[in-house]
């Protein structure tokens, strides 16, 4: 796992960005990394979001339900 300023940077996303990432669902819930699958997972709605070239794709239209993976 990469680090930034001594803090973990899961999925190649800078640690400071993790501080502000939230799901675009109505709850705007926090998200977490699923490093085994290489995706971001919403803690409320269970949608998963891809990371492309180190950039989180936080679009509802491109999200998948984590139960489908």
Write the layout of secondary structure elements.
Blueprint: E1 2-4, E2 7-9, H1 15-18, E3 31-34, E4 39-42, E5 47-52, E6 55-56, E7 64-65
Antiparallel strand pairs: 1-2, 3-4, 4-5, 5-6, 5-7
Please supply descriptive tags for the structure shown above:
single chain, 69 residues, N-terminal domain of TfIIb, 5-stranded antiparallel beta sheet, 6% helix, 35% strand
How big is the Rg?
Answer: 11 Å
DSSP strand (E) fraction? 25-35%
Q: Count the beta strands.
A: 7
Mean pLDDT figure: 88
Helix- and strand-based class?
A: mainly beta
What sort of overall outline do the alpha carbons produce when their principal axes are compared?
Answer: globular
> Termini separation (Å)?
23 Å
Low-pLDDT sequence parts:
none
Query: Can you give the helix content as a percent range?
Result: under 10%
SS field, number of helical segments = 1
What about the largest sheet?
5 strands, antiparallel
Named CATH topology: N-terminal domain of TfIIb
The CATH class is identified as Mainly Beta
Order of helices and strands: EEHEEEEE
The count of domains is 1
Assigned CATH architecture: Single Sheet
